[in-house]
Design brief:
The protein is built from 8 helices and 2 strands, in the order ααααααααββ. The model has no long low-confidence stretch (mean pLDDT 84). Helix content is 67%, strand content 5%. The protein is mostly helical. Helix 3 crosses helix 8 and helix 4 crosses helix 7. It has a two-stranded antiparallel sheet with strand order 1-2. Strand 1 and strand 2 form a beta hairpin. It starts with a helix and ends with a strand.
């Protein structure tokens, strides 16, 4: 057993709701197509914007999921199990599946931007397309903020680890990196270098 229940739950908890929301979203598009309302894509995005919350929740924790996998990869048995899974899944490793929800928001944005380029100015869905783009852009910015904060926490944690003997706590959620510079810290006995 390469992961405990807590780790599995942390990684996969959001997948059921993400899949359910996207299946509902796809069904709404298919239903609109069957009813000859295929020209209301913007409106469908707005009516199904609950998919964004589930994606944001997952994106918020994705850097931690990635870190967990990096830690687990130190275990040779874990790496062997990952390779076996990859072979069973047409060569795709699990991380390529785990990043898929993270890539969804930018893809929606690309889709809507392409759609709006070919939408006439008098089209009834143009207003909804523009509004849907605004909603997804806001969600995308929020996701980018979460990812940037996680990257900064990772850097701060690495610096903190290098400076353990000084008992300095840097990897706090409220801390932000303003600038990275090379510095040297020294005490009477040792010289320790850290990147800040």
């Amino acid at each position: 057993n390469l992961m405990n229940d807590l780790e599995r739950d942390f990684i996969f908890r959001d997948f059921d709701i993400i899949q359910k929301n996207h299946n509902n979203f796809l069904s709404a598009f298919c239903e609109a197509e069957r009813n000859n309302f295929s020209t209301n894509a913007g409106q469908l995005f707005l009516e199904n914007k609950q998919i964004l919350k589930a994606l944001i929740d997952y994106i918020h924790k994705y850097p931690s999921i990635n870190e967990l996998f990096e830690i687990k990869k130190a275990n040779k048995g874990f790496n062997a199990a990952l390779m076996e899974l990859q072979q069973e899944n047409d060569g795709r490793d699990i991380l390529s599946y785990l990043i898929t929800p993270v890539q969804r928001l930018p893809r929606y944005l690309l889709f809507l931007n392409e759609l709006i380029k070919v939408t006439p100015y008098f089209h009834p869905d143009l207003f909804f397309l523009q509004k849907a783009i605004n909603v997804i852009e806001k969600a995308n910015k929020k996701a980018d903020t979460y990812i940037e904060r996680a990257k900064q926490r990772t850097v701060l944690k690495k610096i903190e680890d290098k400076m353990k003997k000084y008992n300095i706590r840097l990897a706090e959620s409220y801390r932000r990196i303003e600038m990275l510079v090379d510095i040297s810290l020294s005490d009477q006995k040792n010289l320790s270098k850290a990147q800040l």
